[in-house]
Amino acid sequence: MSDEPARWSRATIYPDMWTDPDDDPRNNDGPSPEGELESLEDALTNYRMTLRMKCEGLDAEQLARRSVPPSTMSLLGLLRHLAETERDWLNWISDGEPLPKLYGENDGDFDGAVAEQAEVDAAYAALAREQAATDAALAEHPDPSERLGKDRIAVRELMVHRVEEYARHCGHADLLRECIDGRVGQ
């Protein structure tokens, strides 16, 4: 007998997928995006949805469950970390004083990810708020080569970095979710 959960998927067509293709909200049967920024925004949107899909259906204890010691990584920690990261990105493109950290210094985003429903609700709200703020600020700059903020980061570079950050953490979320309940897939 093993403490590891059995691997499973909700998909019925392809057993290694998270969900059936017809039920996947990331599927887009229409034309692909035309421009560079539109393509990057589409990829970012899909990775954001993937992260939320990997977290759905879990309770506060499951979302806060840590991977393996000494790591403090958890799905709830990832939600908090990405909210903090969105705020950092907003600070990168701002000319004003930086907004304060959401969770303090030194891994506060992961360390404070405790198994309480109020923390889960706050993490989802913070992530949505910070994503919306960064998205709104970038929407004012449709030229991917435009340089913003004190460090003059190109919009293109920031968008690529955003996609990379979400993609990397979706990989972590895959493994974390499989450890929690055995669910696997795309």
Automatic annotation (TrEMBL):
<protein>
    <submittedName>
        <fullName>DUF664 domain-containing protein</fullName>
    </submittedName>
</protein>
<dbReference type="InterPro" id="IPR007061">
    <property type="entry name" value="MST-like"/>
</dbReference>
<dbReference type="InterPro" id="IPR034660">
    <property type="entry name" value="DinB/YfiT-like"/>
</dbReference>
<feature type="region of interest" description="Disordered">
    <location>
        <begin position="1"/>
        <end position="39"/>
    </location>
</feature>
<dbReference type="Pfam" id="PF04978">
    <property type="entry name" value="MST"/>
</dbReference>
